[in-house]
Amino acid sequence: MSLLGKNISVVGGGIGGLTAALALRARGAKVTVLEQAPAITEVGAGIQVSPNGFAVIKALGLGDAFRAVAVQGQAVELRDYRASKPVARLDLGLLPDDQPYFFVHRADLVDLLAEAAREAGIKLRLLQNVETVHPGPIPEIQLANGARTKTDIVVGADGLHSCVRKVLNGTIAPFFTRQVAWRATIPNDLNHPPVARVHMAPKRHMVSYPLRGGQLINLVMVQERMGWADEGWMHEDDPDNLRAAFADFGGEAAQMLARVDKVGLWGLFRHPVAPNWTAENTAILGDAAHPTLPFMAQGAVMAMEDAWVLADALAKADDTASGLAAYQSRRIDRATKVIDTASGNAWKYHLSFPPVRFGAHLGLRAVSRLAPKRLLQQFDWIYRHDVTQQD
């Protein structure tokens, strides 16, 4: 099916929505992005872009521009919390040269995608608060101010609280995982190398890695607890509450925590993968279709993979209906597997029973020293998957 001249409206101007807009535009569609914010921007801080995500960025022609704003990762290190002593190391240098791993500020990636969208002739419409959509032969988008607009295809890339997802699937309440997360950035005056460090403690862990040419350090701290914060990105907390929760962390972890002067807190919820990703001339992607916990660093990357496959499936199909069906068929098993892996990953960092914790760390040290490729190869099914090369 030719997308040449097709009018496609993308609801949401985040990473997934902008990637979809670019992939669809590259295949000839006329694309409009509807973003409710007053500017195309991104809250939060750092994300990790593994090789499977970079494959999409590169296929969009943005590989060199992305490298200019990102930090290429050299390793992932697992460390004990008490003195930040190393437990194991995944050497990212063992990845093939054409499959690099990066750390990047969300805002820098969004800026890059938005600028590319403008240059490609994609319309970016701001202050567009979409209330609902009406799938059909000619789908309609209804704004909160009562305005309505018709289009050929609607793509819902409107995130965790997606209105498009509700239309396709109804409302399904998420459940609290009994985990909360803090997020902060601090100046990199500790010479943090281009490495993601996971400081593991009983019922808690802390992740750190550099951003913006090594000028900043991105911090994510996760704690298991019964009390919970409202789901979302924009809840500020007192840094002293964070430090109290991680008061027994030592070494460089303690030094980084001491430098936090502003921090956000949110509860971590698990959502089921949406059973319906499509309806008549309507689709969802990314968090709108399959929200994921942050324990495999694949949320943004899965959205980029979805975006590419959606555009590819539509372009290769005989009609829109079969293209949308192919899109969900090609994506749902992989997305579900990644999400299930992320959901089951946190306990590995949070071991509490001393003999189990000691034995697990001893085993990790041995594998890291004697068979370093084994640690990394367990993720080949994620990292070496390239949607831009799939039929």
Q: Which structural class do the helices and strands define? A: alpha+beta
> In the CATH classification, which architecture of the domain at 7-48 and 104-172 and 272-345 applies?
3-Layer(bba) Sandwich
Report how far apart the termini are. 15 Å
Percentage of residues assigned to helices:
25-40%
**Low-pLDDT sequence parts:** 352-358
**What Rg is obtained from the alpha carbons, in whole angstroms?**
21 Å
What distinguishing features does this structure have?
globular, FAD/NAD(P)-binding domain, 391 residues, 6-stranded mixed beta sheet, alpha+beta, 13 helices, 8-stranded mixed beta sheet
Explain this structure.
The chain has 13 helices and 20 strands. The chain is α+β, with helices and mostly antiparallel strands and 391 residues long. It has a domain at 7-48 and 104-172 and 272-345: FAD/NAD(P)-binding domain, CATH 3.50.50.60. The strands form 4 sheets. The chain has an 8-stranded mixed beta sheet with strand order 6-5-14-15-16-13-18-17. A 6-stranded mixed beta sheet has the order 8-2-1-12-20-19, sandwiched between helices. Helix 1 packs parallel to helix 8 (299-316), helix 2 (51-59) crosses helix 8 and helix 8 packs antiparallel against helix 9 (320-343). The longest helix has 24 residues, at 320-343.
Summary of the model, kept short:
The protein has 391 residues and is an alpha+beta fold. It has 13 helices and 20 strands.
